Amino acid sequence: MDKQGLSLGEVAFSFLSSLSSEEGKDKQQEVNRFVLWYGKDRPINQITSLEVANYAQWVGSSSEATRRLEPVKAFLAYAKKEGFVKANLASQLRVKPISVKSPLIPGPKQRVALAPEDYIELKSKLTV
């Protein structure tokens, strides 16, 4: 079987085996998470650039995400260098910054003045 027909799990094992034991321990969890995401038995040459970009989006967009994607980038760079894939899939692992206008990020808290009767009405609605 040619190198490009190997499964994602086989190439991940080859990559992790090529590392020092300390480096392998550091990268193993994130590489395995990537492999399980796509299926360890899936041929590596069937992974597309779009799928890799979708994985990066799934991981998220934070400094933690950048740290989590580094081992996967190293794995995909290894796969390209060793001839397991033709395309440079590692370039698709980009962390997209969070938009400042995102509704998930609360803005500054604003105080709202309520008349005493409005407060009582609001409180009664919350206790129902």
Helix-residue proportion: 40-55%
Q: In angstroms, what is the radius of gyration?
A: 23 Å
Instruction: Return the structural class.
Output: mainly alpha
CATH architecture group name:
Orthogonal Bundle
Shape: elongated
Q: Give me the CATH fold name.
A: DNA polymerase, domain 1
Distance between the termini: 68 Å
The ordered H/E elements are: HHHHH
The overall average pLDDT, rounded, is 84
List unreliable stretches of 5+ residues. Answer: none
Q: Figure out the total of helices.
A: 5
Strand elements, count: 0
Q: What would CATH call the class?
A: Mainly Alpha
Sheet with the most strands, sense and barrel status: none
CATH superfamily: Tyrosine recombinase, N-terminal domain
Query: How many separate structural domains?
Result: 1
Classify the oligomer: single chain
- Percent of sequence in beta strands: under 5%
Please describe the topology of this protein.
Layout: H1 8-17, H2 21-38, H3 49-59, H4 63-81, H5 116-127
